Amino acid sequence: MTVFVIAGRTGNLKLPMTPTVGYLEERFDTFNRMCFDGALPRIPIKLSSARSFIGRLQYRPIRDWRGKVVRHEDFVLRISTRYDLPEAEVEDTLIHEMIHYWIAFNGIRDTSTHGRVFRAKMKEINGKHGRHLTISHKSTPEELDRDQRVTIHYFCVSQLADGRTALTVAASTRIRAIQRTFQWSPSVRSTAWYSSEDPWFNRFPRCRSPKLFPVEPAELAPHLEGASPLR
Ligand SMILES: [Zn+2]
To answer: Sign of the C-alpha dihedral, residues 159, 160, 164, 169?
Structure first.
């Protein structure tokens, strides 16, 4: 039996997408049921063209006569459409903001913005639902381009049965096992392995299991030129 995982940047086979308000509202309702027992009232979700964030939750503290915050109101959840992110990453961003909302709505006191309560809830959701939420919002393409560490990468370029091209950056000790899985997978038509020190590959996780990250051939091509084929 071949166990075969196909993945976008964070877990499923979805291409970059630009979310709409209707899509985000539907996802909000789904994640509300899945991860928060349906306890979160709907709030306005707005699209933004911000470069500085992917998701952001805004709200207003309501204080009593002593100035103590008694609750939060006027919640607005904004998602930036500046970047074409894979769907799983858009979803993870939405859930991340929903944890902030869950904490503020329930008046829970956390140790910091992404404190103990936030991390515990994040861990629970990642574990239960196979998500890949992180404390820092996922990197924007510009941040990825700034990652210039030079290190050797071993990677596989696969032609998938559905016509797409996929990339797998592998841990050096896992190359053989991953190649064996690809060879027997009906989803993979052909594979070619390379090594390269191009920092562009830093943006991909170093896989220990067979995961495929669909890439645009045109985006990949310039980075294949300096790569050496492995045999
Ligand atoms: Zn946050």
So the answer is: negative
> Around Cβ 194, how many Cβ atoms within 10 Å?
18
Distance of CA 139 from the midpoint of ligand 1 (Å)? 13
Taking the centre of ligand 1 as the mean of its atom positions, its distance from the CA of residue 118, in whole angstroms, is: 9
Task: Tell me the backbone φ, ψ of residue 36, rounded to 5 degrees.
Answer: -130, 25
Structural domains of the chain in order of their starting residue, each with its CATH number: 16-142 (3.30.2010.10), 148-229 (no CATH)
Residue 113 CA, ligand 1 centroid: distance in Å: 7
Q: For the chain, what is the mean pLDDT?
A: 86
CA of 106 from ligand 1 middle (Å) equals 16
Ligand 1 centre from 98 Cα, in Å?
9
Q: How does pLDDT run across 180-203, given as a tens digit for each residue? A: 999 999 999 999 999 998 888 888
User: What share of the chain in percent tops pLDDT 70?
Assistant: 88
Between 166 and 199, the more confident residue is 166
- Which region, left, alpha or beta, applies to residue 154 given φ > 0 means left and ψ of -120 to 50 means alpha? beta
The whole model's pTM is what?
0.56
Asked if 10 contacts 89 with a C-beta cutoff of 8 angstroms, the reply is yes
